Amino acid sequence: MLKESKYPYFLVLPSLIFLxxxxxxxxxxxxxxxxxxxxxxxxxxxxxLDNYYFVxxxxxxxxxxxxxxxxxxxxVAIQLLLGLAIALGVSGIKxxxxxxxxxxxxxxxxxxxxxxxxxxxxxxxxxxxVHYFLSLLGIPLPPEGILGNPDTAFWGLVVTDVWExxxxxxxxxxxxxxxxxxxxxxxxxxxxxxxxxxxxHITLPLIKPTLFIAAMLRxxxxxxxxxxxxxxxxxxxxxxxxTLSHYLFYEGLVYYRLGYASALTLIIFLIAIVVINIYxxxxxxxxxx
Amino acid sequence: xxxxxxxYLRYIFVGLIVAMFMFPIVWVIMLSLKPPEYNFTxxxxxxxxxxLRHYWWSLVDPGYYNKHIYNSIIxxxxxxxxxxxLSAPAAYAFSRFGFKLKNFLMGWxxxxxxxxxxxxxxxxxxxxKSLGLIGTYPAIWIAFQIFSVPLGxxxxxxxxxxxxxxxxxxxxxxxxxxxxxxIHIILPVGAPGFIITALFIFVFCWNNLLFxxxxxxxxxxxxxxxxxEHFRMIGVTWNYIATGSVFIMxxxxxxxxxxxxxxxxxxxxxxxx
Lengths: 289, 273
Fold this sequence. Notes:
The complex is a heterodimer of chains A (about 290) and B (about 270). With about 290 residues, chain A is mainly alpha-helical. Chain A contains 13 helices and two strands. The two termini of chain A are about 35 Å apart. Chain B is about 75% helix and about 0% strand. The interface between A and B is large, with 95 and 94 residues.
């Protein structure tokens, strides 16, 4: 008979063993090969920390790192601002709120790979709707097409991600807005506070934690972006839209530079761990609770 | 007067936003109904004689996507069952007990859900290869657990949290063991939670591209992968991409719309109050 105090460990154990096999083992596998020269078919030769040196000094790695961080920062900023604007707009609507929320949930139900394909179709030169209407508005577009030019290709990916996830952010913020106690807002209004003041001094402080958590969550997901890059730009033109995930995919499973890819794996993972730990600090490990 | 004007502006803003976010979806549905000669026109064709022949090609003759739809269902549903079986006990423990490693473990599960899946992919490929599992269902079922179990644990924990402790405490006072209390009290009350969690996990597996692409093979190819494979050509294949996309979107859209209340709260993992 199990003692009551042992119960929780017993219950957690199956999933824990499974996930340890699925995470710790592969990571040790990567750790081991990160110290070795290994290209598929070659002998495995111990080379110490050389792979890490090669990764950290490789302009392609630096390039992907900068692109990934820039991409993540920009999409999070746009999604927060636009999401807040949408949430504020929807929160004041009395009839049809349910329908609007139902429609807003649609983009995030689209598989990222499909979102990428749809936007690829929208970006086609001349025949794509986005390209057609932008040129109709007189916005100068590069002759090589939206996805063929380094700058516009980057923004093409940003727009795809913003399309897919802004509605989600706006629904999160909306839920938070609706939970702001209306009597506080009413009291402030009776005291003569303007809408802008109420928003700045009452609403915003109350929804701030939600905004922060939503931003962290989205940053982490944007850091992992692979699907839309793979189908829309293939990291190109050149390597100008290459995210870290896309870079690692090619090093590991296309070029089979496995020693190098293993070191890259651990570096990408370490960066993720830092961000994830910040997220955890502000969610389940919130101090004092 | 000013308030009324502001209200109109609000409706116009929200209306425009909703229209803009819906447009790509509407456009791909239109593409799935277009005769191929309307696919690439300048200006883009908004008006065309709709046809169902691409759906016919996809589902009936030759039924190109049938095999892939089947694969997607098998891959996602078995992975979901595995994930629920593994995560339900852990979720129950996190919800009902206080124990030493609880916070650490919960953080670890959450971290795994957020971690970049790509970092596990290359090792998985070689491990699965040495096990002879590449190109089989189990390779993908197992790989899917990396995000499904953490998602399941967190979503189910939230649902368990809502089942009042008093229910099982009362049952245990009446002489039920904890296990019997669990089976007779918690499971029936928590059933909707299980169903919703399972459906969400199903959607995340269904929409996944990376793992089937790296670990799968021609026999187990899901719909996401086969739809994507058409896209480097221009012509009628874009209509087939569109039908494939419509099939992929339909199930997640229905599930998310029906259970959107839980989705917004559930995916704010760790922050749900």
